[in-house]
Specification:
alpha+beta, 3 strands
């Protein structure tokens, strides 16, 4: 049995549209190598008592818990750099699956 993280979204109309859009994007991202592209693994979507649930790999801790542990002190530049690098790696690869359009002009 594996530990997972669940994102729970209420089942009202606006959130259902948002959840469907998110599932569409996650389905496209699933074609990329999560290790090479710095992506959290998404396993599946399901409904429970009318709520839409997205199942992801479990990571260390939430951003909220991380910041709480730091007494909400801002991140240092040396802590932000690897995060930005990971986001940029994903952004560069995203056009390959028609997810983002990035202007390089």
């Amino acid at each position: 049995m594996r530990t997972v993280a669940i994102k729970l979204m209420r089942g009202d109309d606006a959130l259902v549209r948002q959840a469907n859009n998110e599932v569409s994007i996650l389905s496209k991202l699933k074609s990329l190598d999560p290790d090479r592209c710095n992506l959290v693994r998404w396993y599946q979507a399901f409904t429970d008592r009318g709520h839409i649930c997205l199942e992801f790999e479990h990571l260390d801790k939430s951003l909220y818990d991380f910041m709480e542990d730091r007494q909400y002190q801002p991140l240092l530049l040396k802590e932000i750099r690897p995060i930005v690098q990971q986001v940029c790696t994903t952004a560069v690869l995203s056009p390959l699956i028609n997810l983002l359009k990035i202007d390089t002009d």
